[in-house]
Structure formats: C-alpha cells, structure tokens
Design brief:
Blueprint: H1 4-13, H2 19-25, H3 37-47, H4 84-89, E1 98-103, E2 108-113, H5 117-120
C-alpha cells in the first residue's frame, strides 16, 4: 500500500479512472480482493498533511478490520452463510463435514461433525 508522496503521485496518475480502480492501483486491496476504501481515504488525507484521530481502540490506533457481528441473513437464493470469522473461531478446517439437524421447537440449526471416514472403517 502506497503512502505519502508516492500515494499522491500514483492517485494523481490514475485520476481519470473510477475510485475503486485508483485504490486498487495504489495497493489498497484486502486478502479477499475487497477494496479497502476507508484505509485508502485515510491514507490520502494523511498524505495531504492532515492528522486524523486514531479510530477505535487497540494498540497504536490500528484498525482491527471487520468484526464478527454474530448475525446473518438468508440470501435471495435461499443460502445461509456462516462466514470465515465463525468457522475460524470454532477451529473448523476446510473439507470438514457436518450433518445438519433442524430443531424446529427451538428454531435452531445444529452442525454435528461427521466422523473421519478412516476411523469409521
């Protein structure tokens, strides 16, 4: 991610493009490919010489990024996404399989880990 004079010069050279393209060109892209607009705009303002108050607590005022809200909603296609923040918190691994149980009386959905096929044989 560019900062300071390098950021201003690069943003100026891309000024005929869309904002997202400018931010991408200056390196403000997260690991998932999402444009980091807030970080980009803060860096631009600071490169212009303005000091911004640090946002949120934490060490050195560093942002902690998106925080899990423990909320989700059913998408238009009927899917219900749990998300990386929750699977990481539970220590789940890619490829792990679960049986889904619906508990109508409580309105809950349970994910029950399936045993590893090697241990079932």
């Amino acid at each position: 991610m560019l900062v300071g004079k390098e950021l201003l010069d690069k943003a100026r050279s891309l000024s005929n493009r869309r904002e997202d393209e400018i931010a991408r060109g200056c390196g403000y892209v997260g690991p998932s490919g999402r444009v980091l607009r807030k970080s980009f705009y803060r860096a631009l303002v600071e490169a212009k010489g303005y000091k911004l108050p640090s946002s949120g607590g934490g060490s050195g005022g560093a942002s902690r990024g998106r925080q899990a809200e423990f909320r989700t909603r059913v998408h238009g296609n009927g899917n219900l996404l749990i998300g990386h923040a929750y699977t990481k918190r539970l220590g789940l691994e890619p490829g792990q399989e679960f049986r889904i149980e619906i508990r109508k009386e409580s309105g809950s959905i349970w994910l029950l880990p399936l045993e590893d096929k090697k241990t079932e044989e």
